[in-house]
Design goal:
Blueprint: E1 3-4, H1 6-9, E2 15-19, E3 33-34, E4 37-38, E5 53-59, H2 60-63, H3 71-81, E6 91-100, E7 104-105, H4 123-140, E8 149-156, H5 176-189, E9 195-197, E10 209-212, H6 221-230, E11 238-241, H7 257-262, H8 264-277, E12 279-283, H9 293-303, E13 310-318, E14 320-321, E15 326-335, E16 347-352, E17 358-363, E18 376-379, E19 384-387, E20 391-399, E21 407-417, E22 422-425, E23 438-445, E24 478-479, E25 494-501, E26 506-511, E27 519-526, E28 529-534, E29 538-541, E30 549-558, E31 570-573, E32 584-587, E33 594-596, E34 600-603, E35 611-614, E36 622-630, E37 634-644, E38 648-654, E39 660-664, E40 669-682, E41 685-692, E42 700-708, E43 720-723, E44 740-744, E45 752-754, E46 757-763, E47 767-772, E48 781-788, E49 798-801, E50 804-807, H10 808-812, E51 821-826, E52 838-843, E53 849-859
Parallel strand pairs: 3-12, 4-5, 5-6, 6-8, 8-9, 9-10, 10-11, 11-12, 14-23
Antiparallel strand pairs: 1-2, 2-13, 6-7, 13-15, 15-20, 16-17, 16-21, 17-24, 18-19, 21-22, 21-23, 25-26, 26-29, 27-28, 27-30, 30-31, 32-42, 33-36, 34-35, 36-41, 37-40, 37-42, 38-39, 38-41, 43-53, 44-47, 45-46, 46-53, 47-52, 48-51, 48-53, 49-50, 49-52
Helix pairs in contact: 3-4, 4-5
Biased composition (Low complexity): 475-484
Domain Fibronectin type-III: 492-577
Pfam families: CBM_6 (PF03422), DUF4832 (PF16116), fn3 (PF00041)
């Protein structure tokens, strides 16, 4: 048990102070330590006594082959490759590569290669990599399985060199232009994950960490000195691996992992560099023989030096608290490791019952564990930092619930992974309970504590019970009645229904769940993200974007923390910016749909969800959309988004009624999306829509959209649509007013349609134009729905219409942001000839480079 400060412990009803002891154990902790590697052809993640973070080499073409491949492809691959690692508390450092010498080359389609002197410097490769990094950000920046990112991609092994080969200029390192392109892309794509690069002399203008892949080799000590000089360790992660396949290893750091760890001279040399460079994790050296006692002892010594090592010296807390009153908790912590903890994880105080189940818990406010810095300026002679680590004082005041039963509880501390809010990063103290908590002492609630016996303690190293979740849910602090005796989850909510939408909100209702004790509330999820909680059977999700499709599920929970499985899925489309109901989108590949026969889901880069359903018809395959919700019985407009290289028919059956046939024209190809509208009769509540074809194959289906009342192709009759870039008509051949006069000169040629928007990449060049052969006098403004890669692009290109030429910024007085927004141009105020507008053009040769996406152009 901890040693008590006798003076303060004697006043049991007052405060109690305890002094804690640092453990001598080496143990697993997130992000840090020996870092195993999952190589190209490995089928899974190996077991390692200290390994919680794994480097993963990933072939580029596993994630993207065609430029049109969707972000969903990356997510699907990740879900397969990393399935279940959250249950083992493992996180991944992905490194995507194109060339892995002596293993293979994985160049994506459309990227020229074959000449090693030039293949790494083409503009095509640069543009492809920057676009791909954006996809990686969308897939991984909020994935809790990803620890941080090795930027990789360029060069052999993705190490930013092509040695022993040379580029055309005689060098072998990543050129400055690629450093800038990839660096800008990574800064934008990864807002929540740290990024590492290979060499400290590269990416000089970026705040990235470093991976020293020849760590502590006597032949490459300038690499380590360069990392020390860059001095980024306070906010960026340093790591690497000890390369045992080159250099004068027999001098330092040893010929093998066993040699390094068993020989104190070699081991201390590596530890010196861990401390100098503030290294968090290290690979290759992890391949030691744990069965060799000398090696194992050396590994334990080194494991304690990596990354952070938080030790609680002393804690003071209220000895007894009345229910409904305040409990004070404070503690002193010092980081005896080599690096900080780089993510903002909460610190929790909890009160445990005698069986160690949690009776109450709450998090400290205004505590940032990233500020718990280690020492600095390592002294190899004294084997200490010349600048000793600071001792941090943490304090919190917590209100104990009024309904908490009187009794003696054990106060414990823990650091939580925000994904699941489970104890994860552990303090290095002998006081330890299996499950990740550090007990301090006993607190009496409504009475003096019965005693201060909080032992026996458990081993940290042998505890493999920790895990995290894949979704981030709200913290569920407070009093938990009944402990672990209630293990039965509520029934899932039924009949989830959309009851209304606005431009920025969706309202939902559902049937109540049942529970053996009682349902305390419901958590609502927008996609996989928590949207909010409700204590009733209804909820309104606010702060949404106009004209956007959202999917929802609901889970019930009880007082013991048991959570039900998810309800049925519903989709809702917010109203457009004018308050009109744009309808609800239902994806063909949605999991709650029913596919029979030959019908299959396949990837579709241009489709709205990244997938489509094909092989419908031929008296075999069929697709039924389930859960089509209608607020009232009546006539609705169904817009079918489909792909077909030829005219084909499809049979429709609503709610099991008699089928009827629609004849759908060709969309121009099997990679081109078209739309077809028809009216259908729906019942109030949930409906089904069944697609088949008894006489031949039907088109491939992307999605359907259900809206009340009748619409034209462009929407309401009070607008004149120029183009909404849904590829119907197909870009760049035509638009909704006629024909584009041309589009050329962009980095991506004439631009490309990406997720229903026109993507234009420009570098002081590029032009597009269309003739407007009709009067637009009845319209007062032109609206361009647009976003930019960085924001602020409104002054980088010029718009000409009705005899007036200005930058978009000068026309509108508005700015482009990184999210879609409607930029409005007052036609009359700008002197635009609306009776004879002539040619509308956009030109990009006025200086500057960047990327924009245009979602829609219209007149209102």
């Amino acid at each position: 048990m901890p040693l008590l400060d006798t003076a303060s412990a004697s006043a049991a009803a007052g405060s109690i102070t305890v002094n804690l002891t640092e453990t001598q154990e080496a143990f697993k902790n997130p992000f840090k330590g020996f870092r195993p590697t999952r190589f190209v052809n490995d089928a899974g993640f190996s077991n390692h006594e200290y390994g919680t973070v794994f480097k993963h080499y990933i072939k580029y073409t596993d994630l993207e082959n065609a430029a049109s491949d969707s972000v969903q492809k990356i997510k699907d691959w990740s879900n397969t490759a990393w399935a279940g690692i959250e249950t083992r508390n493992i996180k991944v450092i992905p490194r995507v590569f194109i060339v892995y010498p002596n293993v293979g080359e994985y160049w994506p389609q459309g990227v020229p290669h074959g000449d090693v002197t030039t293949q790494w410097t083409s503009e095509t490769l640069k543009n492809r990599l920057t676009a791909f990094i954006q996809k990686l950000g969308q897939a991984w920046d909020n994935d809790p399985r990803v620890a941080y990112i090795e930027l990789g991609l360029w060069g052999n092994w993705g190490e930013h060199h092509i040695w022993p080969d040379k580029l055309a200029d005689g060098t072998d390192r990543i050129p400055l232009s690629f450093q800038t392109a990839l660096g800008d892309a990574a800064e934008q794509a990864f807002q929540n994950k740290k990024v590492q690069v290979r060499y400290p002399e590269t990416f000089q203008n970026y705040n990235f960490g470093f991976l020293w892949d020849s760590f502590a080799l006597i032949d490459d000590l300038p690499g380590g000195e360069g990392i020390v000089a860059r001095d980024v360790w306070r906010t960026q992660i340093n790591g690497g691996e000890v390369a045992y396949d080159w250099g004068q290893k027999h001098i330092q750091p040893g010929d093998s992992p066993n040699d390094t760890l068993s020989d104190p001279n070699h081991r201390n040399f590596v530890i010196d560099w861990i401390k100098k460079t503030h290294t968090t994790s290290l690979g290759w050296i992890d391949l030691y023989d744990a069965g060799n006692s000398a090696v194992s002892q050396g590994a334990a010594l080194m494991q304690k030096e990596f990354g952070y090592r938080f030790v609680i010296n002393q804690a003071t807390f209220s000895g007894s608290v009345q229910p409904g009153e305040l409990m004070d908790v404070s503690f002193q912590v010092v980081n005896k490791g080599a690096a900080p903890f780089y993510y903002d994880w909460p610190v929790e105080a909890s009160l445990l019952r005698s069986d160690r189940t949690v009776a109450w818990k709450g998090v400290f406010n205004n505590v940032d564990i990233r500020s718990w810095m280690p020492g600095d300026d390592w002294n190899s002679s004294t084997r200490q930092y010349n600048q000793a680590p600071a001792v941090h004082q943490v304090s919190g005041t917590f209100e104990i619930p009024a309904n908490m039963p009187a009794g003696t509880y054990t106060l414990a501390l823990s650091i939580l992974d925000p994904y699941g809010y489970k104890p994860s990063a552990r303090f290095a103290n002998t006081n330890y309970y299996t499950g990740g908590r550090t007990p301090l002492g006993n607190v009496g609630i409504g009475m003096a504590p019965a005693n201060q016996n909080i032992g026996p303690f458990d081993s940290l190293k042998s505890d493999n019970t920790l895990s995290y979740s894949l979704t981030q849910t709200p913290y569920d602090g407070g009093y938990s009645d009944g402990g672990s005796t209630d293990s039965e989850a509520p029934s899932p909510p039924a009949n989830l229904t959309v009851t209304g939408t606005t431009t920025s909100s969706v309202s939902l209702t559902w049937s109540a769940s049942n529970d053996n004790v009682g349902v305390t509330g419901y958590d609502i999820y927008r996609g996989s993200s928590w949207a909010g909680s409700s204590s009733t059977n209804s909820f309104t999700d606010t702060g949404l974007s106009p004209n956007t499709n959202y999917s929802y599920t609901v889970r019930a929970k009880d007082a013991a923390g048991n959570v039900s499985s998810a309800s049925n899925v519903v989709n809702a489309m917010t109203q457009d910016s004018r308050g009109n109901d744009a309808g609800t989108v239902y994806e063909a590949e949605a999991v709650n749909n029913t596919r029979t026969g030959a019908a299959i889901i396949s990837e579709c880069g241009l489709c709205s969800g990244g997938s489509k359903v094909g092989y419908i018809g031929n008296n075999d395959g069929a697709l039924q959309f389930n859960g089509i919700n209608a607020s009232a019985a009546g006539t609705y407009t169904m817009t079918i988004s489909y792909l077909s290289g030829e005219a084909r028919s499809i049979q429709v059956r609503v709610n099991g009624a008699a089928p009827y046939t629609l004849n759908l024209p060709s969309t121009g190809g099997w990679t081109t999306i078209g739309t077809f509208q028809t009216e259908i009769q729906l019942n109030a509540g949930n409906n089904t829509i069944h697609f088949s074809n008894p006489t031949g194959w039907a088109p491939d289906l992307d999605r359907i959209q259900i809206a009340a009342g009748s619409h034209n192709g462009g929407g309401e009759t009070d607008i004149l649509l120029l183009d909404n870039f849904d590829n119907s008509p197909s870009w760049p051949g035509a638009n909704d007013l006629g024909k584009w006069a041309g589009a050329n000169g962009f980095i991506n040629n004439a631009g490309v349609i990406e997720a229903g928007a026109l993507k234009l990449q420009y570098n002081n060049d590029g032009w597009l134009g269309t003739n407007i052969d009709q009067s637009i006098e009845e319209y007062s403004k032109m609206v361009i729905r647009i976003k930019g890669a960085n924001g602020g692009e409104q002054n980088k290109f010029q718009l000409t219409i009705g005899g007036v030429s200005k930058t978009l910024g000068a026309f509108s007085g508005d700015t482009i942001t990184t999210d879609y927004k409607n930029i409005e141009i007052d036609l009359a105020a700008n002197g635009v000839d609306r009776s004879n507008p002539g040619q509308l053009t956009m030109t990009f040769w006025h200086g500057g480079n960047g990327t924009i996406w245009i979602d829609e152009m219209r007149f209102e």
